[in-house]
Every structure is written in structure tokens, then in C-alpha cells.
Amino acid sequence: MSCIFCRIIKGEIPCLKLFESEKTLAFLDIGPLSKGHALVIPKFHGAKLADIPDEHLTEILPTLKKLVVASGATDYNILQNNGTIAHQQVHHVHFHMIPKPNETEGLGVQWPATQGDMEALKALAEQMKAKM
């Protein structure tokens, strides 16, 4: 059996569709964190971002931007999780657009403040650049 998002794409499960193209589907989240919380998914199935061919990702950011404008949000989060320990619940790549209208609605995030070791960061940057 295919994943829930693949079933939504096929029309087997209804959704509150906002936008659809050949490569992308956007719809309202049925468990919203705030008014206008929506998902954008590539129609190509892949569990993690690196599993999706680049040509199937070209419409994702423009679609997210359309959702932001349509929602009227001035403050919002764009979220994309990869893997269970990174809080991914549906293992089909998806992006959340979550309006943040006030301190209590929307995504609650506490970003831990850290200070990196600049020499270690420089070495890591070189390692990563060599693999790109």
C-alpha cells in the first residue's frame, strides 16, 4: 500500500486542495497549528529530501510563496523534516507553511544558542564543499 500522501495525490483520499500542478500539490493541513497551515508535496514519492530528483523540486518554493501570499501571513515558518528522529511523521517529502500570527499560535520553536569552534567549522566547510 502506498503512503497517505501518494493516496491523496491519486485522489483516493480527499484533501482541501489549494494548488496543483504536474509536479506539486498543496493543501491545508488537517491538524493545523494556526489558520492557513498548509502542506506542499512533490508528486514524486521519496521519504527524504535527498531522495527527490531536482527536477521534481523546482515548483516547491514558488508554491510555498503563493501560499504565504494567499494566507496573508506576515510572520510564518517554512518547515521540512527528514527522518523519524527529526520529527518526520509521514515519510513522503513535504513542506509546511505555518503562519505565526502571535506568540501562542503557529510553530513553537526554541533555538538553542551555541558558539561554534571556528577552526572546526572551517574544516567542516571544506569537507562539505568537496562533496558537493
UniProtKB/TrEMBL annotation:
Residues at the active site: 94 (tele-amp-histidine intermediate)
Query: What catalytic activity is recorded?
Result: adenosine 5'-phosphoramidate + H2O = NH4(+) + AMP
Record flagged with keyword Magnesium: yes
Ranges where the HIT domain occurs: 4-107
Task: Spell out the family assignment given in the record's similarity comment.
Answer: Belongs to the HINT family.
Molecular function, one GO term: nucleotide binding
Which species is the source of this protein? Stachybotrys elegans
Q: Which SUPFAM superfamilies match?
A: HIT-like
Q: Which UniProt keywords apply?
A: Hydrolase, Magnesium, Nucleotide-binding
Q: Which domain of life is it from?
A: Eukaryota
Protein's name in the database: Adenosine 5'-monophosphoramidase HNT1
Chain positions of motif Histidine triad motif: 92-96
| Biological process, per Gene Ontology | nucleotide metabolic process
Q: Which cofactor does it need?
A: Mg(2+)
